[in-house]
Amino acid sequence: MTLALQIILVLTSVLMTVFVLLHKGKGGGLSSLFGGGVQSNLSGSTIVEKNLDRYTILMAIIWITCIVALNLIQAYGA
């Protein structure tokens, strides 16, 4: 169980880092490299940005849950 949670924690950490870097931000970000910058400037907020927000939040929730679960396993030795 602990090993599975540790693997999930590492995967969600990497995915969350990638998703955060893909966000537009103030200066354009990495998402503008893939053509997202032109569309975002024209229409304000695209569906891609909204989905990217949802995926980032989902990864953060999974990441926090893994950290809490690993701490509980360590504290109570289950």
From TrEMBL:
GO terms for cellular component: plasma membrane. InterPro entries: SecG. Keywords: Cell membrane, Membrane, Protein transport, Translocation, Transmembrane, Transmembrane helix, Transport. It is found in: Cell membrane. It is a multi-pass membrane protein. One of its GO terms (biological process) is protein secretion. The chain crosses the membrane at residues 6-22, 55-76. GO terms for molecular function: protein-transporting ATPase activity. Belongs to the SecG family. Involved in protein export. Participates in an early event of protein translocation. PANTHER family: PROTEIN-EXPORT MEMBRANE PROTEIN SECG. This is Protein-export membrane protein SecG.
